[in-house]
Design brief:
187 residues; mainly beta; 5-stranded antiparallel sheet; 2 helices; 10 strands; 9% helix; 40% strand; globular
């Protein structure tokens, strides 16, 4: 797999997270029930959330990091923004800082970022034209307490599914690498 300058620039952007301390974490989801909103991110798995749109990491130095599903490299990859929020009307934010998944990361510092690049090949039906894309499928963030969180551009098709599927406009997030492998978030 060959990474272009654009891919290397994304890697460089992701490394800007190293050294930031997490103060608060929020999920942004579509407000499916605007009059009586409730979180849609919990799954049947402990410490594995399925987030509809994006994850906000509020950090020291007044930095706001948004990790979201993005189409920069391919329609269903991961994107990162620093101090540049997506403008998505009809969404609701949930503070998940005290949830079991995130509370162990509050007050810790990001010490490492690893991006998993995947290749997908598409073929246009009418013309038969084939094109390959290299895109960020998941990000593993290591913190100063030696714990990791994995965020993948994937989701469950139905509640009760045992595995996640890529090519969805969704993120799954967990701190359990074994579980991430079990549900096919990572290889």
């Amino acid at each position: 797999m060959t990474l272009t300058q654009e891919h290397l620039d994304f890697e460089k952007l992701s490394r800007q997270l190293i050294g930031l301390t997490i103060l608060k974490v929020e999920y942004s989801e579509i407000a499916y029930e605007p009059t009586n909103p409730k979180p849609n991110y919990p799954t049947q798995f402990a410490n594995l959330d399925s987030v509809d749109f994006s994850i906000f990491l509020h950090t020291d130095n007044d930095k706001l990091v948004e990790i979201y599903w993005d189409g920069k490299f391919f329609q269903y990859g991961i994107g990162i923004k620093i101090n540049e929020q997506s403008d998505f009307s009809g969404s609701i934010k949930w503070d998940v800082s005290t949830n079991d998944l995130w509370k162990k990361f509050i007050g810790t510092t990001i010490i490492e970022i690893h991006i998993t690049w995947e290749t997908v090949t598409t073929t246009e039906e009418k013309t038969g034209k084939t094109e390959s894309f290299v895109y960020p499928q998941d990000i593993k963030i290591t913190f100063s307490n030696d714990k990791k969180v994995i965020i993948s551009a994937a989701g469950f098709l139905d509640q009760g599914d045992k595995e996640v599927y890529g090519m969805l406009d969704n993120l799954t997030v967990t701190d359990n690498e074994e579980l991430a492998r079990q549900v096919k978030m990572i290889n």
